[in-house]
Amino acid sequence: MSSFIHGNVFEGDTVRCSLPYGDLVVEDAETPLLLISAGIGCTPILGALNDLVSKESSREVTVLHADQSMAAHAHRQEMAQLAAQLPGARMHHWYEQLGARTTNETVHEGFIDLAEVDVPADAQVYLCGPPPFMKAVRRGLDALGVPESNIHFEVFGPDTWATVPELVPA
Fold first, then answer.
1. What pTM was computed for the model?
2. How confident is the model at residue 20 (pLDDT cuts 50, 70, 90)?
3. pLDDT at 25
4. Per-residue pLDDT, 3
5. Which of 152, 170, 121 lies closest to 35, judged by CA?
6. Which residues 6+ apart lie within 8 Å of 160 measured at CB?
7. Distance from C-alpha of 18 to C-alpha of 39, rounded to nearest angstrom
8. Angstrom distance (rounded) from CA 24 to CA 98
9. How far apart are CA 15 and CA 40, in angstroms?
10. What is the distance, to the nearest Å, from the Cα of residue 143 to the centroid of all Cα atoms in its chain?
11. More confident position, 165 or 69
12. How far apart are the first and last CA of the chain?
């Protein structure tokens, strides 16, 4: 959207906007949270983390983020700082390109792999990112037996990704 506005909206143009909204609203509960994002899908995850920090939450929170590289990871430092303020939080990153960096317990190379983290059976999962990423993560969650009712997502665009036949749980 930013590129479109930059290239098409000029001084004096009228722009009609709405208040921000979305489907990814973290419910107040004590169940563990699994917050998963890729690319700019971190935006609603940041909102969730800010809310948890403001409530001084002690919930178990696992934050997983995937991106092309550390340099491409929008809000990387802010996300890490918010997670660090939550006593029950841990964070993992997956980068397609690590450059000169090396992997460690929380920084992984390649695509997100749910087998590398502990996913509590009763976790409430909040997911946002590009549709191919969300499809892959959804398959991983299904393989781990995470109930469909525990998976919440937001799509930046038409909400058609979950209805693709090969992705609908059997």
1. 0.80
2. low
3. 81
4. 73
5. 152
6. none
7. 23
8. 30
9. 23
10. 19
11. 69
12. 36
